[in-house]
Amino acid sequence: MIFMPAKFDFHTHTLYSDGAGTVASMVEAAEARGLKAVALTDHGFELSMGIPREKLAPMLQDIGIAREDAGIQVLAGLEANVVDEWGTIDVDDESIRKLDILLVAIHKLGEARDPSELARDYLRRATNAIERHKFDVFVHPFYFHHYLAPHLLPEDLEDFVRLAAGHEVAIEINIKYRTPDEEFLRLCLREGVKLSVGTDAHTAGEVGRVDWALGVLRRVGARREDLILGRFLR
Ligand SMILES: [Zn+2]
Ligand SMILES: [Zn+2]
What we know:
Layout: E1 8-9, H1 23-32, E2 37-43, H2 56-69, E3 73-81, H3 93-96, E4 101-105, H4 115-132, E5 137-138, E6 143-144, E7 146-147, H5 154-166, E8 170-174, H6 182-190, E9 195-198, H7 211-219, H8 229-232
Parallel strand pairs: 1-2, 2-3, 3-4, 4-5, 5-8, 8-9
Antiparallel strand pairs: 6-7
Helix pairs in contact: 1-2, 4-5
């Protein structure tokens, strides 16, 4: 069966964190680009560029207004950050309950060491985050200044992907950093992990530019049902 691309973008930033566009402008751009759905996913509370906690309510209000005007599905989300090696994230449960979608990412690791140590640190944090928290998508996987997956053992990556499958955590194809690699995505598909697509757009001009990801999805043999989109479509 030929893969029919359903365009969606589940990773965007607005002025509420380090993006340059309003919620309304990002949603308008997503609709203009022919997406079926877009998620607004500003950074969590603990990063210096993250959304301040008291801005969550106005952000949700803005998204609600944009949703009423939009002809596409609009999801309210955050990109939580893993803050320590135990997988703690910087968004509390009460805030999470107000969201439609929760992304989790790693933006900080311990002291810089050799790449394989860095990769093991990353894997430990990611594994603990999945074991401890319920969330939807693990984003820009294994990307930390450069792509770390090649520094891990194949069996470690397999264990990680099986863990994600068991917890129903989707893996993102991140367009900004062009990660992960196709071999890793094929492993995800074999183990039944759903895939997400995110531009990581910080401007309206970048929202929904998903062609690269659609090419990747086609090459790895993804089908429509392998995408996380279906879980969120009305
Ligand atoms: Zn990120
Ligand atoms: Zn991001």
